[in-house]
Amino acid sequence: MASSEALKEKLAKLQIEFEEFKDSCTEYEESLENELAEKAKKLEETLVKCRDAEHNLEIMKGKYQKNEAEISKLQTEIESLKKRIRSFEQQKYELEHLNDQWEKSARILEYSKTMLEEKLYHAEENAIMYKEELEELSQTKQVEMQRLKDQYQELKQELIHIEVSPPPCEKLQRRSPTPSLKHTVEHTITIPISRSNSKNPSRAVSRKGSFDENASRQSVKVLITFRPPTSSETWDQQVLAIDETTIQIKEKNKESKNFEFEKIFVPGTTTETVFQDIEESVFKLISGGNACIIAYGQTGSGKTYTMNGIISLALKKLEELITEDYDVSLQCIEIYNEQLKNLLSEDPFSKNWKETLAKAEMKLSNDWRSKSWEMVQKAISRRTTKFTECNERSSRSHAIVWFTITGPTGVGKVQFVDLAGSERIGKSQAVGETLKEALLINKSLSALQDVISALENRQKHIPYRNSMLTQILQPTLGGSESIVTMIMNCSPSMDSLNETMCTLALGSRVKAVDLGFFIRKNLVTKEVERTLTLLEKERSEKNSLLRTLDKLQRDLESYQIALKDKDNKIAILNNRIKQREKDNATRKIDTFLIFNKHKKKKSRYEESDIRVGSLSPTNLVSPTSVKGSRIPTLVNLKITKKKTMTSK
Ligand SMILES: Nc1ncnc2c1ncn2[C@@H]1O[C@H](COP(=O)(O)OP(=O)(O)OP(=O)(O)O)[C@@H](O)[C@H]1O
């Protein structure tokens, strides 16, 4: 019984203990549930944060990608800018190199200029010396000639005396040193040195005898024509006085200059009047002779005007003279920059002048009378013209209208030559291509002068081959059956005074009478011949010196212009270099600014990168755990940075 009582008691105790345990379990369960609820709440909060962080991460990623694209764009820009800088630097280097070269050539040119000036100075000195010597010599010769003239008069008197009362044979033999005395005297010329028009030695010579006076005297005929002044030009007749045989130039503070010619056509003379002196050439053509009519002068002096008038009048004359027994052919050609063009066709310029010339010959049919002038006009209108400082429509080429007439008396040729302007290069203000063109014009005009001088001096070698112009003119220029007429066209304008003087000086030189040749043909005295040979030598030396001087002056001018041209180019290049340097500096500043901007962006990006990295869902730590940052950090978040970024 006692044991059951004890058991009951034990049971009651256990029940109480159980109840207590049950209570504590319930309590514990409650506390666990509370704790669980709290944890779940916290988890919920963390998940929300995570989602926010993921969202932020997405935004950051977007920004990062945008920044990355921008950075690569900037990098490309930087690369291209660097490339441009490099190319500018290369250009700058090249320009500097070019500048050096220009400077070097300028120095060389300067040196050649000095040398040329020195040569010119010596040539001028020589020319003065020769001139003085020549003047002295010519005075001596004049005395000598006077003596000869007196001798001749004496001989003539004696001859008259002999003819009136024939002496015994022995007497004649004694008086006459050679059996041909009578013959000699008959063929001797009268040399009236102090004739009224002795100003011009060509007309100061008259003769009796059987040889052809014109053949020796008129090898080259020089006509001077002045066109009327235009409305914009002034002609001061006190400074430039023109009459029919003399031109006097009286510039202020300068020695006055006189030029004398056989024929001077004053301003306002008609082309018909000028043509009267050329008509002879057309007649010569009909009888199988040759003629060359050349218009020379500065740009705008009226060469084309005169030549066109003369061609049209010559054609009219030919129409009257030529019968159906004659064949007529025409060539209209243009020489430009040492190239030839057939103006009767659309063919381009060619260097092969012989072939072009052969092709250019056009045989005219029987109705040529009505067509030839029209054809010539059409051809002339095709000439190369340009605007220059001196003429609005300046012919920059030499034009030749060439008629060949084949008839019963032989083949006659006439060349009408309208030369390109002879103005000095400095005046035309030519540069570059135009300068080259002007130099070639000058070269061919010099070659023409040389040929004419050689013809006048009866030189053995005539330098036709020195230019295309002279080669083409060879058939009519020179030769005993040829009449050469040079029409020296001048402008009366005060602005063109220097050019007019050059043209007139050339005219005088061309017309310098070949007195020596003329007299030697008729006098047989050895002493006179020797003296004349000397005189002729002196004259040809003087002429050659004057030509050299003229050439040197032209060369000097060309060099000066070329130098100026180069100086201008150097100045332009220097300006360009300066501008490029300025541009480079601006670009460098721009690049620097872009670079700084890019640098700022990069550091901002790196900062955001660090922030994104701190928002790891697995390693979420309390804000206080990240040093110096109050933003939660995501650790082990796998953002793969591009290599380029990490390397930067
Ligand atoms: N005798 C003249 N009478 C009236 N006007 C003239 C005379 N000569 C020339 N002229 C005028 O002067 C101007 C220049 O003449 P032209 O073109 O013949 O000169 P150019 O020497 O041939 O020049 P370029 O060498 O440049 O060709 C033209 O307007 C022309 O009509």
TrEMBL record:
Q: An example Gene Ontology cellular component term from the record? A: microtubule
Task: Give this protein's Gene Ontology molecular function annotations.
Answer: ATP binding; microtubule binding; microtubule motor activity
Family per UniProt? Belongs to the TRAFAC class myosin-kinesin ATPase superfamily. Kinesin family.
Q: Name one GO biological process term.
A: microtubule-based movement
Binding residues for ATP: 297-304
State the source organism's domain of life. Eukaryota
State the species of origin. Answer: Stentor coeruleus
Mind telling me what this protein is named? Kinesin-like protein
Q: Which residues form a coiled coil?
A: 4-165, 535-583
Q: Does the keyword Chloroplast apply?
A: no
Alphabetically sorted, this entry's keywords are: ATP-binding, Coiled coil, Microtubule, Motor protein, Nucleotide-binding
Q: Where is the Kinesin motor domain?
A: 219-513
Determine if Transport is one of this entry's keywords: no
